Amino acid sequence: MLDDVSHNWSTLKDPGIRHDGEYPKHAYIHTNYGELRKQVYSYLIPTGKLLVGDYVQNLNVTTSSIRTHYLLEFEGVQPPIPSVATTYFVRSDEFNLRDIDLGIAGVTKKLNTEVSMKLYERQIQFNGSPKSALAFLHDRTRHLECLTNVSLRFLCGSTKAVQLPHPAPAGAIIPPTNIVCWRKMLNVLVHYCPNIKNVELSIDSSFWDSEPWTKSVHTIYESPFGKSPFLYQARANYGDGRWEYSKSFLELIARFHKAHFKLSIDEPAGDLEEKKAKAEYGASWRLHYPPCKGYVSAFPERSREFREKLEKHMMKKMEDRPAYNQFRLCDCDWKKFTDGKPMLGTSCIYTWKGGEVMKKKAKDLWV
Predict the structure, then answer these.
(1) Do 141 and 60 share a domain, yes or no?
(2) This protein's superkingdom (predicted)?
(3) Same domain, 139 and 217
(4) Which domain holds residue 317?
């Protein structure tokens, strides 16, 4: 097979060529097979971002798809939306996934490794629910170390289902982000994807109403009583209506090791309250507008300054984080799955924890 060496064909004597003097130029062929393979990969595997999200329709687990399935719940969403048994989709708005030819990956182990790196080194946008990301990662446990660039999306306790952007299927919607699933997803990304060096986080506009951002960036790391369960994971229930919460959704992000971090927060869109305030109070409408939204609308430069400070603060936190390089293969008991189709709620990825050490098995490293 192709190897990282250069061959000099001048040692191969053509009987039709005289060898008593200088060899003709065409007798010398120098080939860098590493570069040659990269050129071949560029034709077989197009470049571009991948979007991972949730199908909106119910999918029967007896389908021929072997993707991990899960129950997508729309708890608290208004108007009410029933839960759906579904799975994730993978799409790109830059190329057609059917154009990818992975047949070369089955030739040798070396080609399999290089093709996997080429396929997963692109940015993967987890814009759907954390369950869709967990299911995607569960189906690719042998390639987690190939991930280098991820983009995440968090919905701050909104009561409305959100439409996924193009190229998601028509009607693809997701509920507010579940903080418990968010933590499980980040446990996998932080501990089992050691080569992630670029992390992007986008937050919806309800962040401005949910966080005490007008004080300082450090307020997001406070965990007093009464925090929203959408933004912080519950740690203790004191029985009198008070809950204590441990880490915020931003603290869970800040566990990546020395990653380049980029943060974006949606600007609040104008609504009926703003129009009403403008019509009723005229030039002084900002003084009578809801505090957080009015503050952002009146002082957009301060919200930008806050976002920049928060982004730098998160990157500083990542600088102090330890590096993880753990390996884990899927060890699910497929006999317990319906018709052999994996279900996320009973899969092995739900039990993965930081600090585990799994030995590599030579027979499982290449499929």
Answers:
(1) yes
(2) Eukaryota
(3) no
(4) 212-322
Contacts of 261 (CB under 8 A, 6+ apart): 199, 200, 201, 253, 311, 314, 315, 318
Radius of gyration from C-alpha coordinates of the chain: 26
Token duo for residue 58: 């119910």
Query: Which two tokens mark 211?
Result: 């966080």
d(CA 356, CA 26): 57
52 and 136 Cβ atoms separated by less than 8 Å: yes
On whether both 141 and 272 belong to a single domain, the answer is no
Q: What three-state secondary structure class fits 359?
A: coil
**Do 188 and 177 fall into the same domain?**
yes
User: pLDDT tens digits for the chain (367 residues)?
Assistant: 444 444 444 444 455 554 455 555 555 455 677 788 888 888 888 888 999 999 877 665 445 567 898 999 888 787 888 888 888 999 988 888 777 777 777 778 888 888 888 889 999 999 999 999 999 999 999 899 999 999 999 988 667 788 888 888 877 888 888 888 998 999 999 999 999 999 999 988 877 776 556 666 776 665 543 455 556 565 545 555 555 556 778 888 999 999 999 999 887 755 545 666 666 666 665 555 554 444 555 566 777 888 898 899 899 989 988 888 888 888 887 776 766 678 898 888 988 876 554 433 333 333 2
Q: Are residues 54 and 177 in the same domain?
A: yes
- Does residue 42 lie within any of the structural domains? no
Same domain, 301 and 364: no
Overall domain count for the chain: 2
Closest to 209 (Cα-Cα) out of 271, 276, 268: 268
pTM as predicted: 0.78
Name the helix (H) or strand (E) containing 123.
Answer: strand 123-126
